[in-house]
Amino acid sequence: QVCAQLCRRPCYCPWVPPRCPRGSPLVLDGCGCCKICARRLGEPCDFLHVCDQSQGLVCDYSAAPAGTGATCNFEDSEEGCEVNGRVYRDGEVFQPSCKLQCRCLDGGFICVPLCQENVRLPTPDCPYPRRVEVPGKCCPEWICEARDGHLLRDARAVSPPLPYPCQEWGTEWSACSATCGVGFSTRISNQNHYCRLETQRRLCMARPCPALPAA
């Protein structure tokens, strides 16, 4: 039995298929010969290195008239965004976690927190409010240690300012929640008055959003 393939060059496949990054399935190359990782949105492509058709992507040669420099794009030229290996269409609303709701917009995405970011100040009946994670609930809730005498005594033992320098500790600031325009980033740090670990937030802007086309 003789088999033939119409391909621009001979096929030499590795014995072990490649390990693909998250969101990139294992597919046959353009010759239908070797298993390769499908290219994702915005990645370079050609006749051999095909795009992920399950996400509606095709190899776009519009910006490469000479046949070089093509990239994977949506078939209908509609812009989208990729988050955690999944591609969303322009205008699509999604939730990467229970605490965030995001919207794909012009190739990027913007997110808003679903949990209230209110700050509870100390009061006479609740001198040491504390925000804790509640099992079975996504958003943390405030509790008042003053309601329990034992907890109140413990809180008073650690709440006054420390008489010695605090050994500062903190994680790096996370990536900005918006790819363009104003967003927010978070980190865990103990750089506060009581040297306690807490989640801190700050505004950020990766780059300005492109101006909308004139009507």
TrEMBL record:
Taxonomic superkingdom: Eukaryota
Annotated IGFBP N-terminal domain residues: 1-75
Coiled-coil ranges from the UniProt annotation: none
GO CC, any one term: extracellular space
GO terms assigned for molecular function: heparin binding; integrin binding
Pfam entry (one): IGFBP
Residue stretches making up the VWFC domain: 79-145
Alphabetized UniProt keyword annotations: Cell adhesion, Disulfide bond, Secreted, Signal
GO BP, one annotated term: cell adhesion
Localization per record: Secreted
Family label: Belongs to the CCN family.
Function: May play an important role in modulating bone turnover. Promotes the adhesion of osteoblast cells and inhibits the binding of fibrinogen to integrin receptors. In addition, inhibits osteocalcin production.
Protein name: CCN family member 5
Organism expressing this protein natively: Psophia crepitans (common trumpeter)
Lineage: Eukaryota, Metazoa, Chordata, Craniata, Vertebrata
Gene: Wisp2
